[in-house]
Amino acid sequence: MGQLLSEPVLEKETNYGGNDKVIFAISSMQGWRISMEDAHIAILSLVEELEKIEKEKENSNSGDNNENIEINANNLENDISFFGVFDGHSGGVVSKYASKELHKILINDNEFKSKNYEKALKSAFFKLDDQMQKDAELSNCEAGSTAVVSLIVDKSLYIANCGDSRAIISSNGKAIALSIDHKPTLPDEKTRIYNSGGFLQSGRVNGQLAVSRSLGDFIYKTNTGISNEEQTVTANPDVQFRNIVEDDEFMVLACDGVWDYMSNEQVIDFIREGISNRLGLSQIAENLLNECASEKADGSKKPSFDNMTMIIVGFLHGKTKEEYYNMIKDRYIKEHPEKQINNVDSEIIEKTSTVKK
Questions:
Q1: pLDDT for 89-109, tens place per residue?
Q2: How many Cβ atoms from other residues are within 10 Å of residue 185's Cβ?
Q3: How far apart are the first and last CA of the chain?
Q4: What is the pTM of this model?
Q5: Domain count for the chain
Q6: Which listed residue, of 10, 69, 280, 346, carries a Cα 20 to 30 Å from 231's Cα?
Q7: Residues in CB range of 341: below 8 A, 6 or more apart
Q8: pLDDT tens by residue, 31-81
Q9: Helix (H) or strand (E) run with residue 128 in it
Q10: 88 domain residue, yes or no
Q11: Do 33 and 306 touch, CB atoms closer than 8 A?
């Protein structure tokens, strides 16, 4: 866990956005930790992002690791959105690098160009790891990062997860897990760890690392006699696919600092109640992080002492934001008649916040 502050840093980085398909909000905060090691990414349109990269490349005289991006924006689906949460450990260098580079590697992958998105996501994770290992600074540091990312292609949802950050979806109020936490004690993870020459101690890889899959953490990826997938700690993501249906209300991506405090069901209920009370998704996200950083008044639950980052992505299904909010409110009131809900049709106010550097 590392050293903690005497008081949590509640200052947040918050943003929101949307188009005719989805609305989203992101919020992150340092919390009780002595430094911020989380990172995130939200791209509503990979087409527009690629055009931006191409323009920057034309205007720059210096190349970077992705200077050979060859895919043309005209060849992409128009409705591809990309969201990701990266929970760093032993420093934030890997999480921050991944948040800036993973989507660039993804859109240049041959499988992505062929619209084989599941294979493309897996490939991109390994290519990112390889790219970092070729970087003198990154390859020699002890930092690592979990990653949970989503790719939305029209009505198709792809979730790639590596580590113990988590993705869930609210389907008519029911919390459905879209990822599995990669803990070293899981049978398949434990088998791979031992087969690669590692061991478990106190539920941690080699007595140190609390997750069995991650980006970076290269000291656990040194066995040259086995594949990348077979390393003690692997960057191999689980990829899940889901058709987005009318009952699917919103998706949540968040690091374990949130899930250590709230269950999947509690997170879904918190967000739905906030929507029913006409709070903007950005305000709901900030409120939820504040809740996670607080001790229960009766002392029944300690605060989450980790950094915290979450993304909420609402699926509009052809509705306006107002219609979307009313739909969820109607559902929520029927399910929870005991709740005191704001019945005034006040303006839905979103907010942005920045952290002072």
A1: 999 999 999 999 999 999 999
A2: 11
A3: 23
A4: 0.92
A5: 1
A6: 69
A7: 273, 276, 277, 329, 332, 333
A8: 899 999 999 999 999 988 888 877 777 777 555 555 455 555 555 666 799
A9: helix 117-133
A10: yes
A11: yes
